Amino acid sequence: MARKHGGREEEERYKPRNSVKGQVLADFIAEFSPRATSITCVVEVRPWRVFVDGASNVAGAGVGIVVITPEDLKLEHSFRLGFRASNNEAEYEALLAGLRVVMDLGARKVEVYSDSFLVVSQVQGNFEANDPRMIEYLRLAKQMMGNFETVKIERIARRQNRHTDSLATLASSIVDEVPRLIRVKLVPEPSIAAKALILQVTEAKRY
C-alpha cells in the first residue's frame, strides 16, 4: 500500500509477524557466529626472576642462586668455586651461573637481582670496567645476556638478598666430605678462562 506524504509518495511495507521474528533470529546468528578471520590472543608472559650473590673468604669462594619461575616455583643452587676469586669476581661468577641455569631451563625473559654495586653498574653501563679480569667478565656477561629475548638487571639491598647470600656462603665454606641436603656444584675454573670462553661461544651459536 502506498500513501502520499509531504508531496512525495512513500511506500509502506508490512511484513508478517513470523517474518520479523525470523529476521531478528537471522541477524542474531550472523552477529555471534564465528567468522573466517582469525582472533589473536595476547598472553602476557611473566619473566624468570634470578637472585644471585657471590661470596669470597679465607676458606674459599662460592655462588648462591635463587631462581623463581613464572609459575612462582623456587629453585635453589649453590656453586663452589674451585679457584681463588676476589669478591667482585665471585659476584660476576654468580651472575654468569644464574644466566646459565635459566638458559638451560629455556627462559627467554629474565630479571636478575644482585646486591653488587660494581657488577650491576658495569652491566648497566654506568661504570666502566678497567681491570682486565673485570673487562673479560663484563664482556662474557653481555655475550650471555644476548641469548635471551630480554634481560633486566637491578641492584637490591643486601638485606633483600640474605637467602642467596646464605647459599653463597655455604658453598664458599663447604667441605667435600660433609654431606649436605642442598646440592652444591663445583665451578672448576673461572668463567673467563679459555675453555669456558670456547664453551660459551659454542652455546651462543646454538640459540
Describe the structure.
Helix 2 (87-104) packs parallel to helix 4. The chain is α/β, with parallel strands linked by helices. It has 2 domains: 2-32, no CATH class; 48-206, Nucleotidyltransferase, domain 5 (2-Layer Sandwich), CATH 3.30.420. It is built from 6 helices and 8 strands, in the order ββαβββαβααβαβα. Mean pLDDT is 77; it is low at 8-12, 177-181 and 197-202. The strands form 2 sheets. Strands 7-6-3-4-5-8 form a 6-stranded mixed β-sheet. Strands 1-2 form a two-stranded antiparallel sheet. A hairpin with a 5-residue loop joins strand 4 and strand 5 (74-81). It has helices at residues 17-32, 87-104, 117-124, 132-145, 162-173, 194-206; strands at residues 2-5, 8-11, 48-57, 60-68, 74-81, 109-114, 150-155, 184-187. 39% of the residues lie in helices and 25% in strands. The chain starts with a strand and ends with a helix.
Features:
2 domains, alpha/beta, globular, 207 residues, Nucleotidyltransferase, domain 5, 6 helices
In CATH, the architecture of the largest domain is: 2-Layer Sandwich
Q: For the report, how would you describe the main beta sheet?
A: 6 strands, mixed
Question: For the residues shown, what is the average pLDDT?
Answer: 77
CATH superfamily of the largest domain: Ribonuclease H-like superfamily/Ribonuclease H
* CA-atom Rg in angstroms: 31 Å
| Fraction of residues in H or I helices | 25-40%
Portion in beta strands: 15-25%
Please provide the ordered H/E string of secondary-structure elements. Answer: EEHEEEHEHHEHEH
Query: How many β-strand runs?
Result: 8
CATH topology of the largest domain: Nucleotidyltransferase, domain 5
The largest beta-sheet arranges its strands as 7-6-3-4-5-8
Q: List segments where confidence is low: pLDDT < 50 over at least 5 consecutive residues.
A: 8-12, 177-181, 197-202
Return the domain count. Answer: 2
- CATH class label of the largest domain: Alpha Beta
Query: What gross morphology would you assign?
Result: globular
Question: Termini distance?
Answer: 76 Å
Output the number of helix runs: 6
**Structural class of the helices, strands and pairings?**
alpha/beta
